[in-house]
Amino acid sequence: MATINRKTTETQIAVELNLYGSGKYNVNTGVPFLDHMLELWAKHGLFDLTVTATGDIEIDDHHTVEDIGLCIGEAIDKALGEKSGIYRYGFFILPMDEALTEVAFDLSGRPFVVFNVDWQQEKIKDFDVSLVEEFWRAVGTAAKANLHINLKYGKDAHHISEAIFKAAARALCAAVAKDPRRKDIPSTKGSL
């Protein structure tokens, strides 16, 4: 379990995350589409997640979305501690109607994010789809994870976004799972 609070002149965010939960969530970000994505991320990853946020959404959603990503990434890193006994790697391929996405996590301690998605739409209602990448880039960086997100194919931006968040949930769930045979840190270096 990890609690992260972030306050800047642009945003005020509180995140509580239990990576070994049951998929309960309470999300209020001020960005309805992000609320929807975080709710299904928690549900499909079996993470217990609480997010409350206020931000300068009268300007646009960018600061709020990115800062929530930073807080969730920091919560992932904090909740894992030294990462003893976890599988470390997780990947998932997920279909969502016409879209197919692939997400892979390595909780390596070395942040690197690859995001291969070509959007055919710019907006989902009022939500700028480029913020999906900003969110996951912030999560991967703050979680100190190697994160690869690939769209294999798809057209509808809502389906693509949902497939990304659900696949990321399942991939992270696999990476943080406890390996019953491992008691140490899964690295020949002795640390992650």
Descriptive overview:
- With 192 residues, the chain is of the alpha+beta class.
- The protein has a single domain, classed as Ribosomal Protein S5, domain 2 (2-Layer Sandwich), CATH 3.30.230.40.
- Helices cover 34% and strands 31% of the residues.
- The chain is built from four helices and ten strands, in the order βββαβαβββββαβα.
- The chain has a four-stranded mixed beta sheet with strand order 1-2-4-3, covered by helices on one side. Strands 5-6-10-7 form a four-stranded mixed beta sheet, with helices on one face. A two-stranded antiparallel ribbon has the order 8-9.
- Strand 5 and strand 6 form a beta hairpin.
- Helix 1 runs parallel beside helix 4 and helix 2 runs parallel beside helix 3.
- The longest helix has 20 residues.
- It is globular, with a radius of gyration of 16 Å.
Question: How is this structure best summarized?
Answer:
The protein is α+β, with helices and mostly antiparallel strands and 192 residues long.
Instruction: Tell how many strands the DSSP assignment holds.
Output: 10
How many separate structural domains?
Answer: 1
CATH fold type: Ribosomal Protein S5, domain 2
Q: Approximately how much beta-strand content do the residues carry?
A: 25-35%
Shape: globular
Mean pLDDT: 97
Q: Runs with pLDDT <50, length 5+? A: none
Distance between the termini: 19 Å
Structural class given helices, strands, pairing? alpha+beta
- Counted by DSSP, the helix tally is 4
Question: What about the largest sheet?
Answer: 4 strands, mixed
Instruction: Please list the strands of the largest sheet in the order they lie side by side.
Output: 1-2-4-3
CATH architecture: 2-Layer Sandwich
* Secondary structure: helix percent: 25-40%
- Name of the top-level CATH class: Alpha Beta
Q: Which radius of gyration do the C-alpha atoms yield?
A: 16 Å
Give the helices and strands as they follow along the chain.
Answer: EEEHEHEEEEEHEH
